[in-house]
Amino acid sequence: MSFYSFYSKIRLLNKHKLVGTKEFSQPDSIIIPFYGSDFIAEALLSANFAYQNVSNLKEIILIGDQSPSLINVKITNQIIRYHQLDIKVKLPSNHNYRKIYYSRICKIFASEFATHDKILVIDSDLMLLQSPYLFWSNNGVTGSFRKGSMIAKFHQSGEKKLPSPLRKTYRPYIKEHLNGAFMAAKKEVWSTLREKWLNYYCDIWSALPDNQPPTDQLPLTCALDHLNLKTFDAGNWVNWPVSKNIGGRTAKMPKEVIGAHGGFPLSEWDRYHLDKDSFLNFKDDGYTRKSRYLKDCDRSQ
What we know:
This protein is of the alpha/beta class. It has helices at residues 3-9, 40-53, 98-110, 151-157, 187-207, 217-226, 242-246, 267-274, 285-292, 296-299; strands at residues 16-17, 24-25, 29-33, 59-64, 80-84, 118-122, 126-128, 134-135, 140-147, 176-186, 230-233, 240-241, 250-251, 259-261, 280-281.
């Protein structure tokens, strides 16, 4: 049996379907990490959507690198607050994607600042349109899955030597992966995962050339494996790709969507807020990728 055949046979260990489970509840804390001034507006919009649409929340925390004076959190809203992250991790001095490199670390750190037990971490461009009811495991993470094996990131690098975190793992080889834009876990699980995830992120991307944007999902698969954590599938509606599904054409937002990920321009969300049956005109996936996965030198142009 080949190496890949072996891992394809154990792919079901990657995720557990939540069929017949009654232990669903809403998050206590929603954490929204971002890096760079360009992402303040979408992070604030994401926080406001969470505040308006998710009931029984105890806190919404924006985590970023920007000065608090630039973050316009209304003082009348005691649930939303901002924490400026001081990244002390040693970073590459010269990296084509230094800003993206920083942003991934910001995401990995983000859960540390939650004060309650049930913590949902979402990307700054994910809008929660209704309350997510999730499964909270004592030894696992709940989220949604995307197609594609993470080991492809290593192969695309052109590097021959496998970084040590990738050894004795199976999740990087499976043709689907837990997407990092929507991840829910209990505080203790986050505490266990966070340190290993950060170490593996630095180990992997310091060993690989900077010929592609660094992703947090490759080291995440390794950390989940080495910690023997389970992953639970909450379905596609919690992390629904807007640009891939309705981008580039005029369409309504499906009623089933819980978390809408990646809808640009942000002004279309104002139309949706006024009328949920509005016909919306979001950009297609090509625009999103070109605008969000740039080298640092291209951002200044």
